[in-house]
Amino acid sequence: MKLYDAAACPFCARVRIALQLKEIAYETVEVDLHERPSWIYDLNVSGRVPVLDDGGYVLPESAVIMEYLDERYPDRPLLPADARDRATARLLVHRFDELLARDWYAFRQGESHSVEQRLEELPIGQSLFVDAAFAPWVIRARDLHGFRLPDRLEEWLSDRARHPAFATEIALVRSS
């Protein structure tokens, strides 16, 4: 299994966390986001990462990749067992991607200040799927941008950091 990745990208981070939570071995191909190689467009027409190559089956989009991994490797499930709870987890990630991720990139360009409010409202602790999807932004807000996290988020992140998948991502962000 091969992951086309960018260490700084929170969307890639959620896939790295999912792969580690599921204990799936993978090879990383680092993609320079500032000078995207032309071949990345052959893998994903948008040129974005992450892209997963599972023996020739190529799949872009972080949430879709996470769902695929959860179905392909059912041991250590990320999504809840109940269909309604699974749908809720997917909806939370979908809404998160629409709201916080959009605001995050606007914040990084100096155009928005609503990131703190979005972080305060995060519905954490719903499932490993949701936590893996949200954690990259929370980690980056705290460790790269100096946000003071609300106590509930700090406690949640401390609890998650006990797992190597989250601890590895925290260490990666702190070393950058």
Write structural notes for this entry:
InterPro entries: Glutathione-S-Trfase_C_sf, Glutathione_S-Trfase, Glutathione_S-Trfase_N, GST_Omega/HSP26, Thioredoxin-like_sf. Residues 1-77 form the GST N-terminal domain. One of its GO terms (cellular component) is cytoplasm. The chain has 176 residues and is of the alpha+beta class. It folds into two domains: 2-72, Glutaredoxin, CATH 3.40.30.10; 83-163, no CATH class. The chain contains eight helices and four strands; from the N terminus they run βαβαββαααααα. Strands 2-1-3-4 form a four-stranded mixed β-sheet, covered by helices on one side. Helix 6 (128-143) runs parallel beside helix 8. The longest helix has 26 residues, at 83-108.
In short:
With 176 residues, the protein is of the alpha+beta class. The chain contains 8 helices and 4 strands; from the N terminus they run βαβαββαααααα.
